[in-house]
Amino acid sequence: MSAPRLALIGHGKMGRAAEQLAIEHGWTVTAVIDAAANRDGAGITRTSLGDADVAVEFTAGDAAPANVRACMRAGCPVVTGTTGWDAERTRVEEEILAGDGAMLWSPNFSIGVNIFWQVAELAAHLAGRTKSFDAHILETHHAAKRDAPSGTALALKRLATAAFGSDIPVSSMRIGAVPGTHELLLDAAFEQIRVVHEARDRRVFAEGALAAARWLIGRRGVYTMRDFLLAEVPRA
Fold this sequence. Notes:
The protein is an alpha/beta fold. It has helices at residues 13-24, 64-73, 86-98, 111-130, 151-164, 203-216, 225-230, and strands spanning 5-9, 28-33, 54-57, 78-80, 102-105, 134-141, 170-174, 180-187, 192-199, 221-223.
């Protein structure tokens, strides 16, 4: 496949990281649509997207549903990493399927995080069987991150709680410029297990988003990073 044509929706920290990495990979960035020009998704059309092969959306929870719907109407597959819109996502996914569109959503595009989730799920399952461990999830992000707990932590909570057999609480910290740290803590009377993922650079999320975007081109349906990872994973 030739280098994809990419539209960016949202030009915050993640949008800028994706833009820089796409250019480094030789992709054509056909459009950058920021919030000021895109109230309720009105700024997203086939024309404004620059006839892109795929769009990457990193905005805010109150903006994502309209943005994804607008991409579907424009006939453009969309990869979105925006969190904080769980209440509406099922409805949007149904509309994507009914409209023969394409969307891949993940609260975290890091390949390592997606491996971490599965390791943590197994650890929680085994610890839960012993009935001797308590469990807790800790997550830390930069001070500007709006949602707490993070989407990554909520996904970890869903997986680990089901595996552990009882509810696992989450504690959140917002400080400095931390890209993202997530930890599953399993504590017993005389020992402790810690399963940790630390992101050292925001580029790791952009790298995963671009790889997922390339994979989504030409597909129809609703996907997650698990679908992507179980398929043949191309490099961005």
